[in-house]
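Work Package 3 (structural annotation) set out to generate three-dimensional models for the target panel prioritized at the project kickoff. During this period the team completed the workflow that converts sequence records into discrete structure tokens, so that structures can be stored uniformly alongside our sequence database. As a representative example, we reproduce one entry of 446 residues exactly as it appears in the project archive.
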Amino acid sequence: MTATVGLIMALVLIGLLVLGVPICISIAISSIAAGAVALDFNMMLQTGAQRTFTGISVFTLIAIPFFVLAGNIMNQGGIALRLMNLARLCVGKLPGCYAHTNAMANMMFGAISGSGVAAASAMGTIIGPIAVEEGYDSDYIATVNVATAPTGLLIPPSNVLITYALVSGGTSVAALFLAGYVPGILWGLGCMLLAGIIAKKKGYKPDSQHITFKLASKVCIDAFPSLLLIIIVIGGIVKGAFTATEGAIVAVVYSLILALIYRSINFKKLLKIYADSAEMTGIIILLIGISSIMSWVISFVNIPTAVGELLKGVSDNPIVIMLIINLILLFVGTFLDTTPAVLIFTPIFLPIALSCGLSAVEFGIIITFNLCIGLITPPVGNILFVGVKVGNTSIERIIKPLLPYYAIIFIVLMAITYIPFLSSYLAYLAGYNEALGSLSRAMLGM
């Protein structure tokens, strides 16, 4: 029965996606079709409706629309230029300074806005033309922009991590947020290292601008209020001053006040921001609700156990099993967006990862990291398409230069998979003991 239900679900889902049916409808139809094999069709319809409403009736979900709104306000609030200036101040004296500036600004702006697409768009629009004027190859700077933009989905706040927390059965959002810092920073630093090596070969010089104490002070003062948002929101959540939902509301109020101070938002812009945020939130919440049907069917017919047994039939070595899971997730990420992929594959692979000695926190970072790579790979990488557009180049021209960055990012992925305390130890130090899995504890001699 398990194999039959799983096969029907997979075939119907893939078939509908190939036909161009929206992902939400595809998930609903495939879940109901598969569930109808195990249950009566009418009963499955009733159960599906019930699971949809149960899936979205979670208080933590309220954090998502507020973080989306805060990110959209930040995107329109004059924040990007101030963060770019700060990044330039920090790394301007390195060879290939504009590439390093782009990478660091992506990490900071992505962390504040929670959107890799927004980071790629904002920084590509600002830094790209300046770099080209300074003699940089447009493909080089666009490649760095694309490669580093997803870091903001790992460095909190991140709606993907909130979604994972819900579908994984209540994993601590604060622990996931803390666990995202090191992998996100390692991703960015790895790309910066490679960009610096390429810059040396191409002969790109450091920034020639003379930095005075007065100029440095002004740049830091301008950027400080934006960076303070991260300290207030993440610090408040970790210290227990407020929940993730309350932290999201604080982020909205703070970002709105900041945008009004900068005079970068008027009433007309604000209405559009509200409309865009409502649309984006509706898509995410509907996906979560519909995916709850699939999660229930997967659990009801015990698909995770069957998949686990299948993987153990290939090998009983946790190293091999986790490599296979990573490869599957990398493949899935190339054609499926992060939110639906997290909703579909977390219930399947999380029990297997737990049996391999990982914690729910550690696996949450691994699955998010994998799916973020999909955002910069064809055929449906959103960040790749945005980066190409704002960089005035083409996918054909930057795919080859992107290959070394894929390699660096994959190395970081393998590091956080097989040395999982790289991601979870920060959360452990903050008091989230459950962040460390048995594998991490064994490595640390605990």
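The chain has one domain: 2-443.
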